[in-house]
Specification:
Layout: E1 9-12, E2 17-20, E3 28-33, H1 44-62, E4 66-71, H2 89-97, H3 101-118, H4 134-146, E5 150-153, E6 156-159, H5 161-167, H6 178-184, E7 200-205, E8 221-223, H7 227-237, E9 241-247, H8 251-266, E10 271-277, E11 280-282, E12 285-286, H9 297-302, H10 314-322, E13 330-331, H11 334-353, H12 366-381, H13 386-404, H14 412-429, H15 442-464, H16 468-480, E14 483-488, E15 491-496
Parallel strand pairs: 3-4, 3-9, 9-10, 11-13
Antiparallel strand pairs: 1-2, 5-6, 6-7, 7-8, 11-12, 14-15
Helix pairs in contact: 1-10, 2-3, 4-7, 7-8, 10-11, 11-13, 12-13, 12-14, 13-14, 15-16
Length: 497
């Protein structure tokens, strides 16, 4: 595929500024994104990184890059409260439900994949499991021990943060320092095993009741949560790769620990561009399992949660997330989701109307159509500014409505360029599907749409004749049947109430 001449700029969380993206190997991109810990159903907070990095993946491929996208599955080693003590999240769920841990993993992984498919998130190139890379993680720990950045304590291995910090800088991604960490660290069982409260586990000795365990040179145990990403990132993308993504809540401790592990292991950092999406909030608080304020994706799709006024289709959810820049917070509310639903309906209706546009020999909109493609690329090149892309697509909808209502003319070439605009940006890159409401076969709805459009055309002709009685009658009867008809400066729009 031929490379498109675009300069993508992305915000690098490490340098805290936008940087021109230049891959390590020309024409190829290695990208690692932290995936889910599969001990429960995916929620809106899980949808955001999946959709954000899906758009990045789609755009990089669109530009002509050969992308290897790795997204891990955490199925071992992630303890409660993201700490080094307590119960493994998977094992706890298995105990509560009296299941084999891998049964829990498979069940929730299947459900996660199903939700991602419904959100039209493309599968990654490789989806490695932490439990499938125990040998690699043990070897990784050995090398950190040999380099002198870790120590054994009661059969567990801990990373020596003060030693690392004296030679490098622990905390440079998140802006923390280790003295601040000392005061913040909770008094937990097992802290006495550590030389410093900021030290973190590379390998944990399993307690007798711990189900998920593997033999190692130090003890029967399991890897620390942070280790899997350093190990699997290097295995599938090399000692250095281009992009590492994840939620902002992972900057500390997870990504900070990853950086320290990679430097201790290789003598240099692995990641060239760090990218972080912001949080989904509910009443100003992060939505998450640990806070118990989350709404699962399935509950959104069915409308079964008490906080939901209705069901919301997967495409409404995707559109809602893309209407905000990935680095800004998004606060959940029914009002915001309903506004997204209406906006998406309006956009798709504009796109459908394009099929009915009668091309003319001359055009009054060519210059505006020409400008739109460049504007959309400009927005994407500016750190994936999806809300601006959406705003430009609404400009295209306004042009279509003007032509449909006889206020402007378009040539056959204009119509093809507008179709190409929606195909490229709305469907291919933003990943929207035309079946927004998931109401079944789109073809079955065509006569219904055609009938409403015909009535509105008759109404438009009545208005042109100043036959206000007929015009108002059609509008009122359509309203009684459940259709909202809105006269705008760009023409008439309709939707189902």
């Amino acid at each position: 595929m031929e490379m498109k001449p675009h300069q993508l700029c992305i915000y690098n969380s490490m340098s805290r500024q936008k940087e021109g993206f230049r891959p390590l190997h020309e024409g190829r991109v290695g990208m690692y994104v932290c995936g889910p810990t599969v001990y429960g159903d995916g929620h809106l907070g899980h949808a955001r990184p999946a959709i954000t990095f899906d758009v990045l993946y789609r755009y990089l491929k669109h530009l002509g890059y050969n992308v290897r996208y790795v997204r891990n599955i955490t199925d071992v080693g992630h303890l409660e409260h993201d700490a080094d003590e307590g119960e493994d999240k998977i094992a706890k769920k298995a105990r509560l439900e009296q299941l084999e841990p891998m049964e829990v993993v498979q069940h929730y992984l299947n459900r996660y994949h199903d939700a991602m498919a419904r959100l039209n998130v493309l599968p990654p190139s490789i989806e490695p499991h932490a439990s499938g890379h125990i040998i690699e993680q043990i070897e990784y720990v050995k090398k950190i021990l040999d380099a002198g950045y870790a120590y054994e304590s009661n059969g567990s291995i801990y990373f020596d943060v003060p030693k690392y910090n004296a030679e490098h800088h622990y905390g440079k991604l998140s802006g923390r320092d280790i003295e601040e960490l000392r005061s913040e660290t909770r008094a937990l069982d097992g802290q006495q095993e550590k030389r410093h409260p900021a030290d973190f586990a590379l390998w944990k000795k399993a307690q007798p009741e711990h189900i998920m365990r593997w033999p190692s040179p130090w003890s029967d145990g399991f890897p620390g949560w942070h280790l899997e990403c350093s190990t699997m990132g290097e295995k599938y993308l090399g000692e250095q790769f281009d992009i590492h993504g994840g939620g902002m809540d992972l900057k500390f401790p997870h990504h900070e620990c990853e950086i320290a592990q990679s430097v201790a292991h290789n003598g240099h950092e692995s990641v060239r561009y760090w990218m972080h999406n912001n949080m989904i909030t509910i009443n100003g608080q992060k939505m998450g399992k640990s806070l118990g304020n989350f709404i699962t994706l399935d509950e959104f799709f069915t409308g079964s949660h008490q906080l939901l006024a209705q069901a919301y289709s997967p495409m409404t959810i995707r559109f809602f997330i893309l209407q905000a820049h990935y680095r800004s917070t998004v606060d959940f509310s029914n009002e915001a989701l309903q506004a997204s639903e209406k906006a998406l309906d309006r956009m798709l209706e504009g796109w459908r109307r394009l099929a009915d546009v009668k091309p003319q020999d001359d055009s009054t909109i060519t210059a505006e159509v020409d400008a739109l493609e460049g504007k959309c690329y400009e927005a994407l090149d500016d750190d994936l500014n999806t809300p601006i892309v959406i705003a430009h697509l609404f400009e295209a909808v306004g042009l279509i409505n003007k032509v449909r209502d006889g206020h402007a003319t378009a040539t056959a070439e204009d119509v093809e360029r507008l179709k190409g605009l929606f195909n490229t940006f709305l469907f291919d890159i933003l990943g929207m599907r035309p079946d927004a409401a998931e109401v079944g076969d789109d073809k079955a709805l065509e006569p219904y749409r055609g009938a409403v459009d015909l009535l509105l055309q008759v109404r438009g002709e009545a208005k042109a004749r100043k036959d206000w009685a007929t015009s108002d009658l059609i509008r009122d009867r359509l309203a009684a049947l459940g259709f909202a008809v809105k006269d705008t400066k760009d023409g008439v729009e309709w939707s189902v109430k």
